[in-house]
Amino acid sequence: MLLRTDKPNIRSYALDDLRAFFEEKGEKAFRANQVFQWVWQKHAKSFGDMTNLGKDLRAFLQEHFLITELDVLSEQHSNDGTVKSAFSLSDGKVVEGVLIPADSRMTACISSQVGCSLDCKFCATAQLKMMRNLNPDEIYDQVVAISRQADQKFGQPLSNIVFMGMGEPLLNFKNVSTAIQHIMSEQGLGMSYKRITVSTSGVAKMIRRLGEDRVKYRLAISLHAADNEKRSQIMSINNTNPLEDLADALKFYYAETGSPVTYEYILFRDFNDSEEDARNLIRFSKHVPSKINIIEYNPVEGSPFRQTDPERLERFRRLLENAGITATVRRSRGKDIDAACGQLANKTAS
């Protein structure tokens, strides 16, 4: 739904600010609590839905605010059960999110930006231009929509959320943090911090900020190479955030939070899948308690990279395991609908 109005989005208000606005306008402050519950926990799409509020108050809200909506523009269904959704935002822009079903969990992979400002050479999203950050309610509404899909299509509740869709979450830190607060709040979705993972390409300054804030949710690092020369070839962020700075930031983060990190490592054939690459990764992973997810490469149009051989993947995994590192191979899901890691590219957008 495309909205053009000068009225503010009511979900841009914190509860205290909303209460203050009500008092300033001569309304009872406790009514703000009811409205807050309607727009976050009950997912009201209009003020008319707020049936426990009087007609005059609903008219007051309609006069001063709007409620933006996120619409499901399209759905694609993979042979393995994965569901990719294109979400239309109130300004007509489009982002994608993915529901990944498994026997023991239902995971929502959500986006934090429209496009991406980074240019990782193996990622389809990086081929898009950066258009804007997502607002907290736009991030939150992706979770709500995917949660409904999990319930309606699989009869199971959403169990996990990963910020691994379009964009770099730590370059939209304020809005991502606010969205997570609502996701965890009892006035929102009431999800545990243990079920939320934020994945970053390695913005050292903001990783330190996570430590300063002593965040409780989980942190994953898209590493993909553990020496500066190779990592800079595929991830230009390494030029300004080299591995030494990343390691220092992670040490600080761990000292402040006590939380281990997860390294994501995509294996590319004849690029980062050698024994030397494994030894470099082993050394880097010793900086803080960690585990490693070895990820299959998913083909991206225009990319020169290829998936490594199964034998080389298994040898790489064994080298890590023999060094005492917990390493898990993550098999790709949703490749047939371009929903797997690194494949989100808004092909449904006009």
Structural features, described:
This protein has 350 residues and is of the alpha/beta class. It is built from 11 helices and 12 strands. The protein has a 10-stranded mixed β-sheet with strand order 1-2-3-4-7-8-9-10-11-12, with helices on one face. A two-stranded antiparallel ribbon has the order 5-6. The chain is 35% helix and 17% strand. It has helices at residues 15-24, 30-40, 55-64, 136-154, 173-184, 204-213, 228-234, 237-240, 243-257, 275-285, 310-322; strands at residues 71-77, 83-88, 94-101, 106-109, 113-114, 132-133, 160-163, 196-200, 218-222, 261-267, 290-296, 327-330. It is elongated. The chain has 2 domains: 10-64, DNA polymerase, domain 1, CATH 1.10.150; 71-337, TIM Barrel, CATH 3.20.20.
The first-to-last residue Cα distance is: 15 Å
SS element count, helices: 11
Q: Report the average pLDDT across residues.
A: 91
Strand content: 15-25%
Rounded radius of gyration (Å): 21 Å
CATH superfamily of the largest domain: Aldolase class I
User: What is CATH's topology name of the largest domain?
Assistant: TIM Barrel
Tell me the count of domains.
2
Shape estimate: elongated
Briefly characterize the structure.
This protein is an alpha/beta fold and 350 residues long. It has helices at residues 15-24, 30-40, 55-64, 136-154, 173-184, 204-213, 228-234, 237-240, 243-257, 275-285, 310-322; strands at 71-77, 83-88, 94-101, 106-109, 113-114, 132-133, 160-163, 196-200, 218-222, 261-267, 290-296, 327-330.
Question: How would you summarize the topology of this molecule?
Answer:
Layout: H1 15-24, H2 30-40, H3 55-64, E1 71-77, E2 83-88, E3 94-101, E4 106-109, E5 113-114, E6 132-133, H4 136-154, E7 160-163, H5 173-184, E8 196-200, H6 204-213, E9 218-222, H7 228-234, H8 237-240, H9 243-257, E10 261-267, H10 275-285, E11 290-296, H11 310-322, E12 327-330
Parallel strand pairs: 4-7, 7-8, 8-9, 9-10, 10-11, 11-12
Antiparallel strand pairs: 1-2, 2-3, 3-4, 5-6
Helix pairs in contact: 1-2, 4-5, 6-9, 10-11
